[in-house]
Every structure is written in structure tokens, then in C-alpha cells.
């Protein structure tokens, strides 16, 4: 298994990002065949499940650590597919999965991070965000939903908030699923070909696709301004679904291995407990 | 695969329940070997995942249907294990899993169904409750946490509330995981033997175990008074973990097959959409 995929995919603070220079069909850190990647995802899944149980167990004795995986990307980039194929290896009871769609009227009356805060995982849990607070500098910026004077301040606000949470025990794994414009067209056309996929398609998808260059600009700003030491972005080439699953599994695995959570010792005397139990 | 496991495990309204007459190591509806049960759970998992996707898709066009699986049982009965081995076959993005522990101070200041209401799945989702509102007539009754005049009214309140939700599209699958007192002792002792299981053990487990007869009485009342047409209880013998997983998978499968959710037709003209897409 490759090591330090994290290092190869991370954007460093201060990096200049040019998405067109990053091929969406590349497979950094992996040079085998698809079938091997699929096998490795299953293997990593087993190791991930074990690490997750230890993370969860540690929280029972006060370990505050938790993980947030942020999934962002253009329509069809595979946010849902990543949850289905990567996160499904984990114990669902320890996952907190939230899909952030357009905010409700109630949510709009709060500051933009309020609803995200509400969806955060607890100590010991792994949170998975299908879209996130970054929509407030992506779709919001592209569609002028608030004035520039408002959204342009959000990058720093996000950095400060993510930093505060990192200080409190949150490990951020922010993943940009990078697909090419041609691959998006193929995927949208496939949805039209299959009646059982029609529910995933809306006429709006075509309108959003026309704004591709604007989204590219907005994403580039996000990657450049919000890749901090506490919470870097990872650019995962996602034209190949199997590579995407492999890379996200790897990112999660490398971070959890580093956290190295431990089963807490019991707060009781096992001998005494056994004696008490045998009396019942 | 067996059919109508549901009918064999359900408590009917008006049934007299005597748990001691129901062997906890029985395997109603299944007469094969453990290995066959394990294979069938995996097969059912694939069918469940397909049905779940259709349920989720249907909600995108206004189908309000959703499912709530309630898991109750004595300590070590396998509530967590059921989530891990049965629910893990589903797409985690469509599941809403809640573990209801002792209520917080904030929750205590609301009526007892308030926090459960807050945890309900949305249309298209499958909710899984590890413990539930039934704790308010179980642990609450056994430990006299509120006066009898209060808890004794709750059975009817629960029935009315579950009925209202059933009318609104909720399918209830209420599962009592039925283990024997001897099996619980074995499982608690095993937790003491394994340091990596110590975090699951607390001295309180022994004290609760001593109240076994009181819990039996409280559960019997629940099964008798809250098995309604809209929301019957299912008693799943749970001394064999493999049977427990098989039976819960079966219950879920039979209910979802009955719901028979359908992919909604698109709300657009595929030809026009294709033409628009090819222009981008």
C-alpha cells in the first residue's frame, strides 16, 4: 500500500493553484490496476473500522478527538458515491453524515456557520459533510447571493473557525473531488439514459454546468485561501471513481493512523467485577 | 429464503406475553446452519440497499414514506451489534442512527417524546433507534424516576403518537432483542476477559442485571400494551447473534418489499435536456 498519499494531494498554505494543470484522470500515489484499487479499498475498510472503534471507545473516557471529512466538488463529482463506497466500511453508529443543501428559512436567519456547527460530530465520531460551509463562498459567490463585501470576509472567518475546532480536537479532511468538464458531461448524459437515474437529474444541472468557469474560479480561491496548517485541502482527481475511493480511503486511513486512538482502560477492578457478576 | 418471518415474530394486539415461554435461543423461520444465515444476511443486504435507494429516490418527488427501526433489549442484547452487522449493508447517507442515552438537562425540560421527535428520519430515510421513547416506561419505571401516575399514562400516549406518525408515512419496526439471563452473564464475563472491551463495561451493569425480574415485568407490559396494528412489537430471540442479524434483516426486508418504493419519473423532457446538455 502506498504511503503519504496525503502529502501528494495536499495544498500547502501559500500554494498557487491552477486546476487546469492538475489532470482529473490522474492517480497520484497509485500505479496498479483498477481491480487492485478495489481490493485495497476493502482492506483499508477493515483497518478503518478497527481504528474507528478505538476512536469511539476513547471518547468514552474523555478523549475529545473527532474527524470531519468535507466533500466538495461539482455536480456528479461523486460526493454521494464516496459516502456509499468509502464510508460504508465504517460502523454507521459512529458516523454523522450530513448533506448540506440550500439553507432553510430558519437557517438563513443565523450566521452561515451556525447550521454547520449543529451538524458537527461529537467526540469519538467521524462526521461526513456532503457539501459544507464552503458553499457560502462557492454557489453564493457564483450566483451573487450576498454582496462581495460579505462573502469575501468569509475565507478568514472559516479559517478561524476551523482552527478553533482543530484546537478542540477536530481533524479536518477537506476533499475537493476534481472532475473534468468532459467527464461531467458524460455522467450527466448517463443519467438521462437511465430512467432509474432521472430522479438525480434536474434542468438546473445544465444551467449550473454553463457556469463551470465561474465555479472554477471560486474553487481556486477556496483552495488557495483556506488551505491552512490546521485544515489543508486535498485535491483528489475524481474522473476515475475507483481512484477517488482509493484516495479518500487512504486519506482517512493516514489521518486515523496518526491519531492512533487507544481503548481506554476500565475504571473498575476486573476481579471485583467478576466476583460481583458471578453472584448474580 | 423464508417468508413471513414478520408474522412469526410479531406480538398481536391483545396477546398475552410470557417471555419465559419464548426461548431466547430459538430460530423461528430459519432451520439451516449459521454459515447459511450469514450468507443470507449478505444477500438480503444487497436487496435492502436497492430498496433503500428507491425509498430515498421516491422522497425526492414527494413520497413521505420512511422507516423507523426501534431496537430495545437488556444490556448486551446486541443493539449495537445489530446496527453494525445489519444496518451497515445500507447506504449510510440514507440512514439516521440515534442512540438515546439518559436525557440531558435540556431534554428533561421537555415532554418525553420531544427528543425522539427530534431524531426522526425524514421522508425517504431509514431511522435506527438504539433505545428509544420506551426507556421512559422501562428504566424510568424500574428505577421510579417519575411517579407511577405519570409513567402509567405513557403507554397510551406512545400508541397515539406512533399512530399519528404511521398515518404520516412512518413504518415502525419495533424489535425486542430477547436474550436469556445466562447469556447476558456470559457476555458480561467476556467483556471482563478482554481489555479491548473494558470500555463497554461499567460497575452499573452488574447492578442493573440484579434488577432482571423488574425489567422483565416492564418489558412484558410494553409488549402487551404497545403492540398495536399500526406498530406491533417483534420479539427476536437474540442468544444467537447470527440469528438475530438474520431475523432483523428479514423484518426490514419484508417491510421494504411491501412498501415497494418506486423511482420517480423525471420532471423534465429527456430529449430536450440531452440537447441542452450537448450544447455545453
Automatic annotation (TrEMBL), chains A, B:
Biological processes, Gene Ontology terms: polyphosphate metabolic process
Lineage: Bacteria, Bacillati, Actinomycetota, Actinomycetes, Kitasatosporales
GO molecular function list: polyphosphate kinase activity
Matching Pfam families: PPK2
Matching InterPro entries: P-loop_NTPase, Polyphosphate_phosphotransfera, PPK2-rel_1, PPK2-related
Origin superkingdom: Bacteria
Transferase in keyword set: yes
Residues of the Polyphosphate kinase-2-related domain: 34-259
Keywords of the record: Kinase, Transferase
Keyword hit for Acetylation: no
Name the record gives this protein: Polyphosphate kinase 2 family protein
